[in-house]
Structures are given as structure tokens and as C-alpha cells.
Design goal:
Structural class: alpha/beta
CATH class of the largest domain: Mainly Alpha
Shape: elongated
Number of helices: 11
Distance between the termini: 29 Å
Largest sheet: 6 strands, antiparallel
Strand order of the largest sheet: 4-3-6-1-2-5
Number of domains: 3
Length: 439
């Protein structure tokens, strides 16, 4: 834990350092005339905003060494939230220039404006479109695959046009060494793009998988079991996930993240259980055995293997049972004797995915299951409705604060669980949440 904390602090420090590097490059050795506080402050914000936009590529490049101290979903959440900060800095740049007396409004006429203004305006407009389509993708009925392509393309154009604006203005990059430093930074961004779109897919191209079976589960879910084709596959830890590309080239612009549902002790095959929620997930049930697949993984730190404890509490909502079944299957295969408590919130008892297997796992593990159907059948005497603090408290064992807690499911449920467990005095280091929201 100490090592991970040290690495987390180091990565955060590096991020902050890189955020201000372009500004330092700009002012270092600059001998031009002063232009007033507002003007210089606006330029500073613009440089920092541009640097932050460039680092967005690094946050989603799936570098496991970067993601490990935080978790992949936390890193993506930061990527999403920090984009608003970068947008605020970038929008403040022209607004403050206008306040300082520089006619920015007049430059909005792209027909007559100089190219430096055209690049700046186009970059800003596309950035607004990029963020808007990310926030309201579902309301706009954008398919995930279409959004992913547009998001990637617009991101590259936004940063490229912003850099072009900086060079054409030339006020703070008027020396050869500064131009070289900016060129190096541009090359770093190009490398990130090549890493994500060329190098990693090329590695996956030589390590294909084959769909061995397609099994329809309860709760509108489908389990794909895949075997490595021409290689030894990879080992993963229970609770981790991978990015799946199915029946298309690994160079495809779209891939989808799903938790592994099979036991980590079985290296000969790998399973993902996918609930039909629209777009790609609704087509998984029609996949034929023998279909070629590519996997980018394993990813994630949502696993008991990295968070040891005397016992575990698993809290799942809907398809959030997927990483939990992998954890339980793995621990059963290992003969683990520690206690496991599973809360499973679902629409109805008929929607309990892996119902029969969960019951059978009671004989192989010290496992307690608390099913929480939203609409219980007549005569049901167990918990029902929305999972809340009182339900959690009723089933917790003594010395519950020493246990490790793993929660995966809809965001509102996760918020309730996190707040409840925190109020109950469970240490933050014992709380592990998989939000699995990558858009």
C-alpha cells in the first residue's frame, strides 16, 4: 500500500509539473515587451489548458503502471472531470483578451480572420462539441462506436489546431530552442496515438482469441467463453477486466470494456458475461462459436488479490455480479476458507444471473448470499426494494470494519453504499468500487 501511495503521489506530481511546463517554456528567456496583466494571465491560462488537453491522451492510453495506483475507472473519471477545468482555462483565454481590449469578437469571422484565429476558433468549437457529445451521448442517440470514433478524431484535431495557433502567434515561441521543445512535446503526443492505435493493436493482432461457446444467462446476459488461438493467453486476477474487440480487426477504432467472469485459476479459457444494454451488447447473443476476438488486458485493481483481508463483502447490482462471480469462482478453486458475504440487488428473482451456481458455491465457500429483488414474489420474506444502509447493517458480521468491501453496479447504488459504509466507520482503504463508466 505504501508503494502504491508513493507511486500515486509521484504520478500526480508529474501531471502537475507537465501542466505548467509549456508556460515555463513560454516565459523563460522571453524578452518581448509587457502587454498588461490580463493579457499575460490569459496567455498563461491558455498554455496550461492546452497542456492539460494534451495529457488527456496519456490518461486514457491504458498504461497499467499509471493506472495501478488509482484504478482504471478512477483514471477515466479524472480524465472526464479535468476536461471541464481545461475547458474553463481555454475559454478564459479569449474572454480575458477581450476584456483587456484586444478585439477577439472581430476574429470570429473566419472568412476574413488570419489563420492563427481560424485555428483557435475551430479548436475551441470542436472542444465544445467533443465535451457536449460526451455528456449527452445517450440523449443524442449516438451509438457508442460512432461516439468513440468522433471523440478520438476531434481530440486530435483540437490539440493539433491549438498547437498551430501557438506557433502562428509566435509571441512566446520566438526562439529556436522553444520551437524544438514544442516539437518534442508534439512528438510525445504522436507517440501516444501510435501506442494506442498502432503498437498495442499490432501486439493483439498476433495474439487472437476464438469464441468457444455462447451461453445465454438469466437477466438478459450472455457469457462468451474464449480460448487463446496460437498462444498461451494471459493470466488475470479475479475482478479485473479487459477491452474486447469482436469479429473485427484489432486496429478497429472501437472496443468495449467487460469484466472477466471466469475463474482466474483456469488459464485454458477466459469468459466475459455481458448484459444486453443496447448498442453492441445487444448483438452479443447472436455471435457464433469460432468468431475471432482480440483482448486488451488485464486491467484494473478491483481484486482481492491486491487487497488482502480476513474476509470480504461483495455488493453487486445487476450486471455488477460479473466481477463478483469471478472472485467467488477463483476463491472456490483455491479452496479459500475466509468468509464471503454477497449482497445482490436485482430487478426480480428471475433476473439473478448465475443463480444456480451461486447456490452451489455455498458448499465450496463460507458464503452468505443476500438477494435483494426490486419486485419480490408473493410471500418473499427477504430483503427487497432499493439497497440502503439499514439493509447493509442487518447482515454485517461483528468486526465488519476489518473486512474488504467490493462494490459494482449502477452509480446511484454505489453512492449509497460508499456513503453508508463510510458512516459505519469502514476505512476508506477497505472500500473498492468499480463504476465502469468509460463515457
Amino acid at each position: 500500500m505504501t508503494t502504491l501511495l508513493t507511486r500515486a503521489v509521484a504520478w500526480i506530481g508529474l501531471y502537475l509539473a507537465v501542466a505548467v511546463v509549456p508556460l515555463m517554456f513560454a516565459v523563460l528567456g522571453h524578452s518581448g515587451p509587457g502587454r498588461g496583466f490580463l493579457t499575460e494571465f490569459s496567455v498563461a491560462l491558455g498554455f496550461i489548458g492546452l497542456s492539460m488537453m494534451g495529457m488527456q491522451f496519456a490518461l486514457v492510453a491504458r498504461f497499467q503502471t499509471v493506472a495501478e495506483p488509482f484504478g482504471e475507472d478512477a483514471l477515466v473519471q479524472f480524465h472526464r472531470e479535468i476536461s471541464y477545468v481545461a475547458l474553463a482555462f481555454i475559454l478564459a483565454h479569449p474572454i480575458l483578451l477581450q476584456v483587456a481590449g484586444i478585439d477577439i469578437v472581430g476574429l470570429l469571422n473566419l472568412v476574413q480572420a488570419p489563420w492563427r484565429a481560424r485555428f483557435a476558433v475551430t479548436s475551441t468549437v470542436l472542444l465544445l462539441v467533443l465535451i457536449a457529445t460526451s455528456i449527452w451521448r445517450r440523449r443524442m442517440n449516438f451509438r457508442y462506436e460512432v461516439w468513440q470514433v468522433l471523440h478520438g478524431a476531434f481530440s486530435v484535431i483540437v490539440v493539433a489546431f491549438a498547437v498551430a495557433h501557438v506557433f502562428l502567434v509566435g509571441y512566446y515561441v520566438d526562439q529556436a530552442w522553444k520551437k524544438w521543445l514544442w516539437a518534442i512535446m508534439a512528438c510525445a503526443l504522436i507517440f501516444l496515438l501510435l501506442w494506442v492505435r498502432v503498437i498495442r493493436p499490432l501486439k493483439r493482432l498476433h495474439r487472437p482469441w476464438k469464441v468457444e461457446s455462447v451461453v445465454h444467462e438469466r437477466g438478459d446476459a450472455v457469457t462468451l467463453t474464449m480460448i487463446p488461438f496460437g498462444h498461451n493467453g494471459f493470466r488475470f486476477e479475479p475482478g479485473q477486466f479487459g477491452w474486447l474487440t469482436l469479429d473485427r480487426s484489432p486496429f478497429s477504432a472501437t472496443s468495449h470494456p467487460f469484466s472477466f467472469s471466469s475463474s482466474a485459476e483456469n488459464a485454458s479459457e477466459l469468459s466475459m458475461t455481458i448484459k444486453a444494454l443496447g448498442d453492441f451488447t445487444s448483438t452479443v447473443g447472436s455471435i457464433s462459436p469460432g468468431t475471432r476476438a482480440y483482448l486488451d488486458g488485464p486491467h484494473g485493481v478491483f481484486t482481492p488479490d491486491r487487497n488482502e483481508g480476513p474476509g470480504f463483502v461483495l455488493i453487486a447490482g445487476g450486471v455488477g455480479i460479473t466481477p463478483m462471480i469471478s472472485i467467488l469462482r477463483t476463491m472456490a478453486d483455491r479452496g479459500d476458507s475466509r468468509p464471503f458475504l454477497l449482497y445482490y440487488a436485482c430487478r426480480s428473482l428471475d433476473d439473478i444471473t448465475f443463480d444456480e451456481e451461486l447456490e452451489s458455491l455455498r458448499s465450496r465457500l463460507d458464503l452468505t448470499i443476500v438477494n435483494i429483488p426490486m419486485t419480490p414474489p408473493e410471500g418473499w420474506k427477504g430483503e427487497h426494494g432499493y439497497l440502503d444502509r439499514d439493509m447493509i447493517v442487518r447482515h454485517l458480521p461483528d468486526r465488519y470494519q476489518r473486512l474488504q468491501y467490493f462494490t459494482c453496479g449502477p452509480a446511484p447504488m454505489l453512492d449509497v453504499v460508499e456513503d453508508s459504509l463510510t458512516e459505519l466507520g469502514v476505512p476508506v482503504k477497505n472500500l473498492h468500487t468499480e463504476r465502469f463508466v468509460f463515457v
